[in-house]
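Throughout our pipeline, every protein is held as a single compact record rather than as scattered files. The remainder of this section carries one protein's record, kept here as part of the documentation.

===
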Amino acid sequence: MTRSLPSNPSLEQLKKQAKDLLKAFKAGNTEVCEVLRYHYRFARSSNENILKLVRKVCEDCKEEYEPEAWARESLPHGATHAFFRGKGCDKCHNTGYRGRTAVHEVLEMDDDFRMLVARNADMEELAEAASKSGMVTLRLDGLAKAAQGITTINEVLRVCG
């Protein structure tokens, strides 16, 4: 049972295809098992969430600093925040960091995005749709935390690239 999706399926067309696949599976056609698993995973998702941990600047030895030129290049244009780093002290074992915090990348899976996934849209189309829906990347969330003085730009770039 091989069917291809229309180039731009409606939600109703996707629901009908899912019912047909389920019917075929119940009838003993095991070829559809992988297709069902793939579609089920995305159809049930309300959002996709990725997180990584970055080290927090030690509050006991925190100092303001001017980031290096290469680190400033990674900032959004017009960013004029004060940035902080730890000098190193006994409490942080002279690392300048103490504790960790999470940076998140969250993508809300709305119906439009589910349809793009279901029709195997290319990465450019998926990235454009994610951007339009307001997705914040790990890197942007990390840079926002650096601008708040929670972590450093170097730590964000080390963890998030």
Q: What stands out?
A: The chain has two domains: 9-44, 46-160. Strands lie at 47-57, 62-65, 83-86, 97-108. The longest strand covers residues 97-108. The longest helix spans residues 11-26.
